# Entry
Amino acid sequence: MKAEILKRLREAGGYVSGQELCESLGVSRTAVWKCIRQLEDEGYVIEAVRNRGYRLEDSGDVLSEQELGKLLSTRWLGKNLAVFDEVDSTNNEARRMAEKGAVEGTVILAARQTAGKGRRGRSWESPRGTGIWMSFLLRPEFEPAHASMLTLTAAMAVAKGIRRATGLDCQIKWPNDIVINGKKLCGILTEMSTEDNQIRYVVVGIGINVNITEFPEEISGTATSLLLESGQPVRRAILVDHVLSAWEEYYAEFLKTLDFQNLREEYNACLVNVGRQVKILSPQGAWTGVSLGIDREGQLLVEKPDGSMETVVSGEVSVRGVYGYV
Ligand code: BT5
# Structure
């Protein structure tokens, strides 16, 4: 019924009375109103005027299967696509779908996550309708040791996607953050299921703060959104398309060598703090050194004060600027 109401609104161009919708669809006013609310949750902007009815504005930031299906210019990624109004976590949903046999390249999006996840049990703020909360499913044939580099390919794709969609230049904070003006705009969470040292599937989860205007106090000093940075609202579906298309290209490049041989230079050009002091926070303690960028395995090279070189493996560590988050 939601699709039918949308069709009527589109065709009418102007107002369609609630009464008319009820009668022609044979449903109650409440049922119509509920569908209108759902469409608004998907991002459609619908004006409701007493005695005239509903009118669809075409400036909406719509993130629906229909809209994305029309827009997506990828070759294979997202051909199987599911957009939810609400899930606990798109990564969890992707894993559930993977267990049931979903195909490689399945993309899952949600308007809102009720239990968005960061790394190591941390949570990810995912308010309704203002971000891209997205995961995609891969069933690669390479060994599990290569999988951590998928996070790096996703970071490159987000940076390029944002540049193409908005013109904004952002930077990568190794291994899984995208930052702009020293604040976090995006986080990436890659999860893997293995058996007998073989990958069963990998889920790459990407959270991008798009049109968020306010963050909870705990992160208001470190988090930002594209709207806050540029002053312009961004259409999420267009950004999704740019990020997924860019990712397909980087992934194809990565698959040629199964490492960052061909991507390293471009990655390091986007990396924040190259040539600067960084603080490495590991379970064994904190130390500082100068970041020299990543090597071809995707590990961060850091020069210690005594001149020796340390290779930092992602997973357990966080990297900070010496004076704060970046
Ligand atoms: C991450 O973890 O940055 C990975 C976040 C991945 C989120 C995506 S959304 C789609 C998919 N589904 C999921 O459930 N997850 C993925 P980490 O490096 O551990 O950073 C988490 C920390 O970032 C939190 O402890 C907060 O301090 C901060 N944070 C939480 N929400 C944020 C937000 N919306 N923007 C910026 N910072 C945030």
Observations:
- The pocket of biotinyl-5-AMP is lined by residues 89-91, 113, 116-119, 122, 124-125, 133-135, 176-177, 184, 187-189, 205-207, 209, 219, 223 (CB under 6 Å).
